[in-house]
Amino acid sequence: MGKRRAERELLRSLSKKQKKHLREFGEEHPFYDNCFIGCYCCCCLHLCFSFQSEDSDKSSEESDSETEVEQVSGYHKLLATLKTSPESESEEDESESEEAEESEAEMDSKGSQETGEAEGGEEDKNDVSEEEEATDTAEQMLSQEQADGTDISCGPRHGVIEEFTDVKHESEFSLETNFMEEESGDCNADRRDSNPFKQHMDKELEEKEIEKMSTLPKTSSQSQWPRLGQLIFSSTLEKHKTLKADKEVDVKQLHLHKPLESTWPKVNKQILSVVDKPIDSSFTPLQRELFCIMNSYQDLFYPERNALTNGEEIRHTYCLHALNHVLKANAQVLSNNAKRRDRKPGTDTDDHRDQGLTRPKVLMIVPFRECALRIVHIIISLLEVNDKKKIDVSNKKRFKGEFGSDPEEKPPNLKRPEDYEAVFAGNIDDHFRIGVAILQKSMRLYAPFYSSDIIIASPLGIRTVIGAEGEKKRDFDFLSSIEILIIDQADIYLMQNWEHVLHLMKHINLLPLDSHGVDFSRVRMLNLNNWSKYYRQTLLFSALQNPQINSIFNKHCFNYVGQVAVRNMPLTGSISHVVVQLPHVFRRLEADSVTSVIDARFQFFIDKVLPEYRDAIMSHTLIFVPSYFDYVRLRNYFKKEDLNFTHICEYTKKAAVCRARRFFLKGEKQFLLFTERFHFYKRYTIKGIRNLIFYELPTYSHFYSEICNMLKATDNGVDATWTCTALYSKYDAQKLAAVVGIDRTAQMLQSKKNVHLFVTGEN
Question: Where is the composition biased (Basic and acidic residues) (predicted)?
Fold first, then answer.
C-alpha cells in the first residue's frame, strides 16, 4: 500500500514535459528526468529494464511476493500507473504479486492480455477494465520505443530492445481498408497501355523465359548518350530494345502520378538554377537521361556519382521515380478496393491481383542518417502541391530530432577537402532504419516494416534486422516483395562493411516464412511463383568502378527488362593532380588468379620491395595499405622482423595516432603503416614523408594524388630526395586506369617490362 502511494507521489512530481516524454517515448527524459531506474543505451542496443543496488538490505521477514515486486523496475511501475487516476484512493488495491506477474508478462510478450484475464477473473468488471486499460497503455508505449523500423519484439531476458514504431495510425494507413479519393488518383493514366508501371508489373513471364534468364548469358550492345556517355545495354531476352536519349522531355508524357506532375518542377527548381542554360524546364541533362532509364524499369549502374557536383541531382531523380512507383501501386490497390466493394456476389476477383506478399515496395540503402533526412524532405516536398495544401506527416518532430544534426556538435574547424565536407555533412550515424507509409494525402514515418511502402536504411541497420543463421530473433520476410532497390553511394560501403551489402542481396526477394495476414486472392502471380527477383529494378550509384560493386550488378540483378551500365573510361587519371616533383615507379607483380594475388603481393613486397627500404637512409617511409587484413598481416610481419615502425588504422585511438605521427615526423620510427579507411574517415595530413609505398592502389583514385601531395607538407622537404613506389597486378586494371589513365594502363598491362616510371612536377 505504501509503495503504491510512493509511485503515485512520484508520478505527481513529474512535470508536464516529463509526463509527455514518458507517455510518448517510454523512456526517461534526456535532460531533466532522474526518477527512472530504466536506462536506454543506444550504443550496445540493450534495454536494462531493472537493476538494484547490491548493498540494499533485505529483511528476512519480507514475503516472496514483495521480493518479486522489488525486481520490477520503476519504469514498468510508472507505465502501469500512467492512466490510473492518482485521486482514486478508495479503489480496491491489487496484490503486489499480481502487479509483478503482470509486469513480467508485459515484458515477455505483447499478448499479455491473456495473463491479465486469467489473473483478474475474481475481480469485478471495473477492476478488470482498468487493468486491461493499464496493460494496453504499457503495451502501446513499449511498442513506441522502437527507434527506427521494426525489430521483432522480445523481453529483457533476450537483451534486445523494441524499437519505436508508430502503431496509432495503423488503420488510417492500411491499404486494405481505404478507398481511392477521386481527386487524388490518376486512374486514367493507369489504364493507358503505354504506362511504364503497368507494362512492367503486368507482364506475365513464361517458364521458358525464366529458365532462359537463369541459364543463358546476356547479350549486350553499346550506345553513346550526350550526358551519360558510353552505355552498355544487356539482357537475356531477345525482345529488349536499346533506349534512345530524349533531347527534350514533356512532364505530361512521363506518366507521373498526381501530384508529381505539378510539384516536380518546383522541387527541382533549386537544382536547375545551378545548371548553366538548362534546355529543359523540369530536368537537368543528367536527370533527364537517368530518369529515361529509370522509367523504363531497367536496372541501372551509374559509377560517376559525386557528392560535390551531381549527388543531389541523382537523389532528387530516384526519389521522383520511387515515389511515382509507390503512388501508382497504392492507387491501383485502392481503386480495386472500391471495385471489390461494389462487385456483385459470385463475380470473379482474379482480375484484382495487385499486391506482393508483403507491402514494402521500395528499399533505399544509404550510408548516413543525413541522407535519409534529405530523402524524406524531398518526398514530402513532392507530395505537397502548395503551401496551402500541406500533407499530414506523422512523427515528423521525432524524425527531425533523431535524423537531424545539432549545430553545436559540429567538429572544430579543421582543414578538410571539399569532397570530405560534402560526404560527411550532417548526422553521420550509420546504424538506422525507418519505414515510410504513404497513402493519398498523408505520410507516416516510423511505420512498422510490414505496413510501410518505402524502407530507408543503412547496410548495418538492415543487417541487424535480417540477422544471421542460428539466431532466434531474425526477420527478412519484409524484403520478399521489393520492386525497386536503390543502393546510393555504394563506394562508401566498401569503407564501412561490404559484407552487410552482400548479406542483404542474399535475403532479398525470397519467399516469406509467414503469411503476415496477406490476402492471397490479391497477390500477383509473379510473387506466388517466387519470380519477384526477375521484376525487381535495381538502381546502383557509386563514385567509382570497383569489382565488388560490379559483382552486385552482374550476379545479383535479374531484371527481365535488362540492364544499363555507364562505362566511361578515365583518360588522364589522378596522377595528373600531383603537384610535387616526384618519380613514380609502378611495379607489376604476377599472379595466377584473383584469390592468389593477395599472397603474391605480400611475397613480392617482402622479397623485392622491402629490402630496398631497410637501410637507415630510406627513413620516413609511409606504406599505404587499402585493406585492413593486409595491414594486420604487414604489422605482424614487421613485429616479427623487429623493424622500427609505427602504425595507424581506423581503430587506432586518438592518443596513439598523435604519438605515431610525432614519432614518424621526428624520424624516431622508420616506417609508418597507414590504412586507406583511416584516411577516408579522418583526412589527416601526415608530415615527414620522404618515401611512399602504395602496397596496393587506393580504392579512391584521388587518394593517390592526396597522399603524394603530402610530401610538400614537410618543412625541410625541398632538400630531401623523394620516392614513390606502387604495386599493381593485371587484376587492378580499373584502379590503375583511374590513377594513370586508360591509355597508359593498356600499355602497362601488355608490356613485357614489369617496371614503369612516371615523373610529375610543377613544370
Answer: 344-355
Contact status, residue 575 vs residue 704, Cβ threshold 8 Å: yes
Chain-centroid distance of CA 749 in Å reads 37
- For 118-146, write each residue's pLDDT tens digit: 334 433 444 434 444 444 444 443 334 33
Identity of the residue numbered 82? L
What lies within 8 Å, CB to CB, of 332 at 6+ separation is 190, 354
Helix (H) or strand (E) holding 457: strand 454-457
Nearest to 240 by CA among 565, 566, 538, 560: 560
Given the C-alpha cell 538548362, which residue does it identify? 278
The per-residue DSSP string of 670-712 comes to SEEEEEHHHHHHH-PPPP---EEEESS--SSHHHHHHHHHGGG
Full set of structural domains in the chain with CATH: 196-238+254-340+354-411+450-566 (3.40.50.300), 574-760 (3.40.50.300)
Q: What CA–CA distance (Å, rounded) separates 89 from 92?
A: 8
For 70-139, give the DSSP string.
Answer: HTS-HHHHHHHHTTS-TT-TTSPPPPHHHHHHHHHHHHH-S-THHHHHHHTTTS-HHHHHHHHHHHHHHH
Contact (Cβ atoms closer than 8 angstroms) between residue 228 and residue 566: yes
Strand partners, 363: 455, 485
CA distance 594 to 505: 22
Neighbours of 192 (CB within 10 A): 12
Name the residue among 205, 538, 532 with its Cα closest to residue 357.
532
Strand-pair partners of 517: none
Of the ranges 20-34, 272-286, 718-732, the best mean pLDDT one: 718-732
Q: What is the pLDDT of residue 77?
A: 45
**In the β-sheet with 582-588, what is the strand arrangement from edge to edge?**
645-648, 671-675, 621-625, 691-694, 723-728, 582-588, 755-760
Do 760 and 578 touch, CB atoms closer than 8 A? yes
Question: Could you say which DSSP state residue 759 is in?
Answer: E
Could you tell me the three cell numbers for 439? 497513402
The mean per-residue pLDDT over the stretch 404-420 comes to 78
Per residue in 353-364, pLDDT tens?
A: 889 999 999 999
pTM score, two decimals? Answer: 0.77
Q: Please, which residues bridge with residue 539 across strands?
A: 300, 486
